[in-house]
């Protein structure tokens, strides 16, 4: 509990003189919400303890509140059809995206590369893409991208990137890529 003269306040207002029994409401705007989780707002009137009062122990009031968490989108699996694509042919990929975050959010776009061993960054263009849309907390959704180029035969690294335009603020921005080894015959 802060003591008289504490300088940790986020906002300060001058109340002025109040007649006995009078009430004045002060509204603060622009308070920083901070990160997700449980919070406590504290109001401290006469925080400098400049006025002698009949009770100096009732000048603070607290109110608990919760800032909801953020969404967190991940790819949990990819199923390709056919399971072994033919060289220079095409295949499709059914990609399962999950919101493992605490709140509903729009997962944006998902890009897919048929052979990309290197980590991709926001805005890199894949061999195919899909709009994923909104997912509730804990919800999964499967989107299918068709007509993906198989390329030449060999072992390849299929890569997906959810929120590929990096438009959504997530609780974890480092888990948006998923890889799967595929073989083209």
Report the span from N to C terminus.
69 Å
Order of strands across the widest beta sheet? 7-6-10-11
Count of alpha/pi helices? 0
Elements, N to C (H/E): EEEEEEEEEEE
Low-confidence stretches: none
Structural class: mainly beta
What is the overall silhouette? rod-shaped
Rg (CA only): 27 Å
**Helix content percent band:** under 10%
For the report, how would you describe the main beta sheet?
Answer: 4 strands, antiparallel
The total strand number stands at 11
| Content of β-strand | 35-45%
> What does the average pLDDT come to?
90
Strand-helix topology:
Layout: E1 37-44, E2 60-67, E3 73-81, E4 90-99, E5 105-106, E6 109-113, E7 128-131, E8 134-135, E9 140-149, E10 154-162, E11 177-184
Antiparallel strand pairs: 1-2, 3-4, 4-9, 5-8, 6-7, 6-10, 10-11
């Amino acid at each position: 509990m802060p003591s008289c003269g504490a300088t940790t306040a986020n906002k300060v207002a001058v109340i002025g003189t109040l007649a006995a029994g009078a009430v004045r409401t002060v509204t603060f705007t622009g308070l920083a919400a901070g990160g997700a989780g449980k919070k406590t707002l504290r109001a401290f009137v006469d925080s400098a303890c400049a006025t002698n009062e009949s009770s100096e122990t009732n000048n603070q009031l607290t109110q608990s509140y919760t800032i909801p968490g953020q969404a967190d989108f991940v790819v949990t699996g990819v199923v390709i059809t056919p399971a072994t694509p033919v060289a220079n042919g095409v295949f499709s990929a059914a990609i399962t995206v999950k919101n493992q975050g605490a709140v509903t959010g729009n997962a944006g776009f998902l890009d897919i590369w048929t052979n990309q061993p290197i980590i991709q960054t926001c805005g890199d263009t894949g061999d195919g893409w899909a709009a994923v849309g909104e997912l509730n907390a804990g919800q999964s959704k499967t989107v299918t991208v068709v007509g993906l180029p198989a390329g030449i035969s060999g072992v390849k690294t299929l890569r997906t990137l959810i929120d590929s335009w990096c438009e959504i603020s997530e609780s974890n921005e480092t888990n948006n890529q998923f890889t799967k080894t595929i073989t083209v015959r």
